[in-house]
Amino acid sequence: MTGVLRGSAVEIVRKAVAPISFEQRLTQVRAVLREAREGGVTTIQDLTTGSQLRAYQYLHARGELDVRVLLRPTLDMVAHVEPLGITQGFGDHWLKYIGYKAWVDGIMGASSAMFFEPYSNNPKNKGTLRPIMRPEGREGAADEMTPAQRYTDAPPGNLLPHRFSASLPKNAWSVPGASSPSPVRSARAVATPSARMISASISALALSRSLR
């Protein structure tokens, strides 16, 4: 036992942690803002939850929000955010909504980041997709990809345009500078010591810039 938690083990512990009070959350946020300010950080992005946003609003109303906060709820919150009519730019100079955040695959530390080739220490493991990506348009599409292919070559799956067509503007999936709309960045090979990594991820920049 090392005491180090990875992957799904983190969620087990997270679920066991008791909810904090609003006052505790304010104390935490104030501490983070103070450290950011002392380090010369003027703007941060936050994967915002409802309770976190309430804390920011409370501090903002009292003139205590001295670091700009750009709000980015996770993409699975679309169904809750969209009915409120909130789109990119909502807010003011200090507290502003800029788009959504999503993860496509795992992380290196848990050996779950996706690669074109298996991990050198586990020939059966090429990484895994996050739950929000499933079901895929063609089951196994990510696992079978080669460096010459794009994930968008596969049929639309759970996280492609038709899934959120009622919630996002028509241009929300367009990648800046691209010649045609692409909901997911083209997978590309990145040289690593053990394999070639699949960088197939949602273009958060595209979502942020086009949710208007």
Number of helices: 7
Helix content: 25-40%
Low-confidence regions: 160-212
Shape assignment: globular
Class based on secondary structure composition and strand pairing: alpha/beta
Please report the total strand number as a whole number.
Answer: 5
* Distance between the first and last residues' Cα: 49 Å
The biggest beta sheet is recorded as:
3 strands, parallel
Radius of gyration: 19 Å
Q: Record the strand order, biggest sheet.
A: 1-2-3
Output the helix-strand order.
HHEHEHEHHEEH
Q: Average pLDDT, to the nearest integer?
A: 75
- The percentage of residues in β strands lies in 5-15%
Domain unit count: 2
Task: Based on the model shown, name its key terms.
alpha/beta, 2 domains, two-stranded antiparallel sheet, 5 strands
Give your account of this protein's structure.
- The protein folds into two domains: 14-97, no CATH class; 104-212, no CATH class.
- Helices cover 27% and strands 8% of the residues.
- It has helices at residues 8-16, 22-38, 50-61, 78-81, 141-144, 161-164, 204-210, and strands spanning 43-46, 68-71, 95-97, 189-191, 196-198.
- Helix 4 links the parallel strand 2 (68-71) and strand 3.
- The protein is globular, with a radius of gyration of 19 Å.
- Residues 160-212 have low confidence and may be disordered.
What is the compact description of this entry?
Helix content is 27%, strand content 8%. The protein has helices at 8-16, 22-38, 50-61, 78-81, 141-144, 161-164, 204-210, and strands spanning 43-46, 68-71, 95-97, 189-191, 196-198.
